[in-house]
Amino acid sequence: MEAAARAIGEDGFAPEWERIGLLAHILAGSRQGREASQGELERLRTLQQQVEASRRQEGGWRAVAPAGLSPIEFDVLACVVAPEAEPRLGWLFQTLQSGAPTPYPTPALLQELLAMAPEETPLLYGALTESSPLRISGLIEVEGGDPFQPVKPVPGVTARLLGRPAVTGDLPGAVLVKTPARWDDLVLPLDRVAMLREFLLWITHKATVVGEWGGGDCGGPVGLFAGPSGTGKTFAAAVLAAELGWPLYRVDLGRLVSKYIGETEKNMNRLFDAAHGQPMILQFDEADSLFSKRGEVREARDRYANMEVSHLLARIESHQGPVILTTNLRKHLDPAFARRFQVVVDFPRPDAEARTRLWQRLLPPRAPREPGVDPSFLGAAVNLTGGSIRNAALHAAYLAAGAGSPLSLGHVALAVWRELGKDGRELSPTDLGPLAPFLPKEAPC
């Protein structure tokens, strides 16, 4: 869709903005008792024909808007986007509504700008309701029901429409994940890859199913990625973000959860208010620690803890944008929350074939190797997760670089030994399986 918008270019929307500017100019003159000239009316009719024709074409508005929008819904969307597309229109709007704090139009200005008769007013306000296609598709924001409060485009809509790069600020309580990821690098069973692609459909075709076909809007979508540490849950989230061309933000629970009553909800509200409707993916790691089963109320703090969980469930369910929860302990999640997932993907520990592919991909491709460093041998030797293989492959490469020699099975054996020792348990060379004979003697047992 973004490609379609770029194909038309920002100039393709010039009749829209000229028409809105002319309507504003005519309105300003009308307030001063001046009638529109014949030339202005003729130009307005010409622009109206051009606008109607462009709205029926593929591309253009189709980059953001669902099919089937009514003329008034198109007009509202165009007027709301106009201040960001053409800043001069924002300044013009402010001169027409001096009491408004922003350049975005209010419902009162829209009614006057579009020269709507009193009997047409319900059509305008119908386009602003929560059940309207503009709201369901996450295109506009309405602040309360006051006709003098501004109507704004959801952040990111104008950028998508005009093919501009999205500019996002810091997200409260979250950090940007900068992990280059491709589908080809994802080592998972084919059925799990298929489930990830199905989750992608919930994101890319929401406007069609909800906006055009009238399907129920369940928010999100929300996905659960469950499995042992190091099995690729975060990497899979990065693959989805890369496919969409969106940023991936990992929520930092340490910056959200507070011991003070009510602060956790406030922190979460700030996060979701900033992310709502924006082209991004939110990822909650170790979700079981935050969305755990609600316990029996024994004291006041238990009651507030359960209220926090309920509040978070409600916010995630109403959030317009994809959310991914990852957990190592799926059984600890609150069953009431589990029903709200659109997709649940279990990430298994890799088998020998998958481990072979991981070793092949994660050993530095241009590193010199001794002939015995065979990914098939390494994949069958030790039962490691993908994250552990990544660490061990890099550790072995640094050992080889430090020794100034080709990467050997000795380097790999020592790297795997170090990786196994990270959990603090007592090790035996037998833990290395067929790699044990290659472990250097100086390595502590």
TrEMBL record:
InterPro entries reported for this sequence: 26S_Proteasome_ATPase, AAA+_ATPase, ATPase_AAA_core, P-loop_NTPase
Record has Nucleotide-binding as a keyword: yes
Keywords: ATP-binding, Nucleotide-binding
Keyword Nucleotide-binding among UniProt keywords: yes
GO molecular function, one term: ATP hydrolysis activity
Residue ranges annotated for the AAA+ ATPase domain, each copy included: 219-351
One Pfam family hit: AAA
Gene3D superfamilies on file: P-loop containing nucleotide triphosphate hydrolases
CDD domains attached to this UniProt entry: RecA-like_protease
PANTHER family referenced in this protein's UniProt entry, alphabetically: 26S PROTEASOME REGULATORY SUBUNIT
Family affiliation: Belongs to the AAA ATPase family.
Name of the protein in its database record: AAA+ ATPase domain-containing protein
Organism expressing this protein natively: Geobacter hydrogenophilus
